[in-house]
Amino acid sequence: MDEAQVRELVEAAMGDGRREFGSFFLSRFFVMTVSYEADSCIVSLDVKPYMFNPQGSLHGGVLATALDISMGHLLKHQFGAGATLEMKVQYFAPVRSGLVTCRASFLKKGRKTFFLQSSSMDGSGETIAHATSTWKQL
Predict the structure, then answer these.
(1) pLDDT tens digits for 66-75?
(2) Band of the pLDDT at 31, cuts 50, 70, 90?
(3) 14, 62, 66, 112: which is deepest, by most CB within 10 A?
(4) Contact between residue 16 and residue 23 where contact means Cβ atoms under 8 Å apart
(5) What are the chain's domains?
(6) Can you tell me whether residue 88 is helix, strand or coil?
């Protein structure tokens, strides 16, 4: 990725500065798509070299971000905005290319505290990571 491509990516991600669900800097920077099905939220991104760690695969932090976004968007979609209180991520396999999809769902719904999970799969359907989290409704 050359300097001009980086500038173009950052400028597109900056957009108009909106900080709303589905359209904020990180979701635009990683070119994520967000959709909903019944009781789940699906966040997808196409893996690009600028997302790699030094070993040449998708950086765990990028994947953790996508997992977190999928859970946060699901909570917002059904109950309103919330904040991550804690999150655990288990990584199962590296990804070097293709589409990654994270699907979030509720484990337990409380009055103000929610427990969610999200699994990420590569383009072949292999589970590459799984996250669980606790959220506080704002």
Answers:
(1) 999 999 999 9
(2) confident
(3) 66
(4) no
(5) 33-137 (3.10.129.10)
(6) strand
